[in-house]
Amino acid sequence: MSLDFAFYPGCAGKQVQKEAEWAARAVCDQLGIKLHDMPRATCCGAVSLRETKPAFSLAVAARILGEAEASGRDLCTICNTCLQTLSHANYRFKTEPDILEQINKANQQAGIPAYRASIKVQHLLWVITDQVDQKALKDKIKKPLAGLKVAPFYGCHNLRPAEIFASNAGEKADHLHRLITLLGGEAVSYDGHDKCCGFHVMLSDPAEMRGMVAKNCLSAKEAGAQVMITPCTLCDMSMGAYQGIAEKTVGKSINLPEMNFAQLLGVAMGIDEARLGVHRLHVDPKPILAQTGYPLTRSPCWR
């Protein structure tokens, strides 16, 4: 099975949650996963574009998917919303050839090559847990998590709708749980693990968004979680960067370190914390991670 992908980190991974992209590249380097840049790719448009200008959204998706296809590789992302947006478009292109023909005609007028709908859209979490040899992955673990209680937060855009994500969807999803166990941690069960992070109402209803963040984080903390991980840069932003604001909104302390899944994997692999961007996190996980033997120094020159 090829571990060679066109890499689409998404806008948040390139601009705001840079540490998620750094960590993804760092762990992939050690696992033999090749991530090839997509220099012509733009924002996927997310849900907003899909709802307001459906045809335009499909045209954008076809152009992005087409760049990956032209390289002969499947597309891999680290953002749930990019995953859902591109997967939704790809599903339509594969099941509605007349739609693909119309979109290709429109794109070709702008000099964009036709997309043949021959590739898959993948999440890096799926690649690591389903396609990398798990014994080889376990051999890379230098600093097991020593029973660390980890809350897996899947978010919603990599789970639903089920007809698009098939076996990776809904209640069947266990990728984070399996990864936590493989790393030597304990996956905490709590109500919010498959709920929305609130990112998409951040501007339209900020109070609601902050309440959602607080509810999810408090649910995990009250269940005994010492740290939370997500597979999504937008969930990282909500559950991490907005956690302090959420605390003020609900009047309760949360103080739950939140990390991208690739960062925690990198920790267990013994990768330097600067390369993983641990210093950029809003709730410092190092006091908790210290009990696993995690290095508390970092290379000052990296990034």
Helices and strands, with pairings:
Blueprint (H helix, E strand, L loop, with lengths): L3 E5 L1 H6 L2 H14 L2 E3 L9 H7 L1 H17 L3 E4 L2 H16 L1 H12 L12 E3 H8 L2 H6 L9 E4 L9 H4 L9 H8 L3 E2 L18 H17 L4 E4 L2 H9 L1 H8 L7 E3 H8 L4 H4 L9 H4 L14
Parallel strand pairs: 1-2, 1-3, 3-4, 5-6, 5-7, 7-8
Helix pairs in contact: 2-14, 3-4, 4-5, 4-6, 5-6, 7-10, 11-13
How does this structure look, described?
- By secondary structure, the chain is α/β, with parallel strands linked by helices.
- The protein has two domains: 4-123, Up-down Bundle (Glutathione S-transferase Yfyf (Class Pi), Chain A, domain 2), CATH 1.20.1050; 134-292, Rossmann fold, CATH 3.40.50.
- Helices cover 49% and strands 9% of the residues.
- The protein contains 16 helices and eight strands.
- It has helices at residues 10-15, 18-31, 46-52, 54-70, 80-95, 97-108, 124-131, 134-139, 162-165, 175-182, 206-222, 233-241, 243-250, 261-268, 273-276, 286-289, and strands spanning 4-8, 34-36, 74-77, 121-123, 149-152, 186-187, 227-230, 258-260.
- It has a four-stranded parallel β-sheet, sandwiched between helices. A four-stranded parallel β-sheet has the order 6-5-7-8, sandwiched between helices.
- The longest helix has 17 residues, at 54-70.
- The protein is globular, with a radius of gyration of 19 Å.
- It starts with a strand and ends in a 14-residue tail after the last helix.
- Residues 299-303 have low confidence and may be disordered.
Distinctive features:
single chain; 303 residues; alpha/beta; Glutathione S-transferase Yfyf (Class Pi), Chain A, domain 2; Rossmann fold; 2 domains; 4-stranded parallel sheet; 49% helix; disordered C terminus
